[in-house]
Design a protein that fits this description.
By secondary structure, the protein is α/β, with parallel strands linked by helices. Helices cover 23% and strands 24% of the residues. It contains 4 helices and 8 strands.
Length: 167
């Protein structure tokens, strides 16, 4: 069973990956076992043409595991299947204390919304997004949730630990 889940969500170029990486580093440093799930909107590929595992997938393999002395990776080719729901992906993770989910704006899990002046869109995420905090590089007026500076990673990690019931 996977531990608690916190999302990092926002519009394109809002600082999601930077905050995710910072939180993972800080929470891991504090001794928590953290896993991540990243939602990409494009045809992202962790394998590339020319590798043996790519050739296995191209030949029709549904799943390919690459195993080395340092790590292993599973690639599941969807073919004609629907994209899995977040709950299905969470169920595939090994046990951990916290999962940081980057993206999945429409999921029901609690989220920290990222906002940057340089983002493509400046509209707040919809109320249905279950935003429990905001991390921004500019002042946010009239917020109904706690607001943090986008680079205040230790303070955001404190909030996440408390919100997730880790401390």
């Amino acid at each position: 069973m996977t531990g608690h889940v916190i999302g990092i969500a926002g519009w394109k170029n809002s600082g999601k990956t930077t905050l995710t990486v910072g939180l993972v580093a800080e929470l891991s440093r504090r001794g928590w076992r953290v896993s991540t799930i990243k939602r990409a909107h494009h045809d992202a590929d962790v394998d590339h043409e020319g590798t043996d595992t790519f050739r296995h997938r191209q030949a029709g393999a549904s799943e390919v595991i690459l195993a080395t002395g340092r790590r292993w990776a599973l690639v599941h080719e969807l073919r004609d299947e629907e994209e899995p729901a977040l709950d299905d992906l969470l169920a595939r993770l090994a046990p951990c204390d916290l999962v940081v989910v980057e993206g999945f704006k429409r999921g029901g899990h609690p989220k920290i919304e990222t906002r940057r002046r340089e983002a493509r869109d400046h509209e707040p995420l919809p109320a249905s997004a279950n935003v429990v905090a905001i991390a921004a590089d500019h002042p946010v007026a009239d917020a109904a949730v706690p607001v943090f500076a986008l680079d205040a990673v230790p303070a955001i990690a404190d909030f996440v630990e408390k919100a997730a019931g880790l401390r």
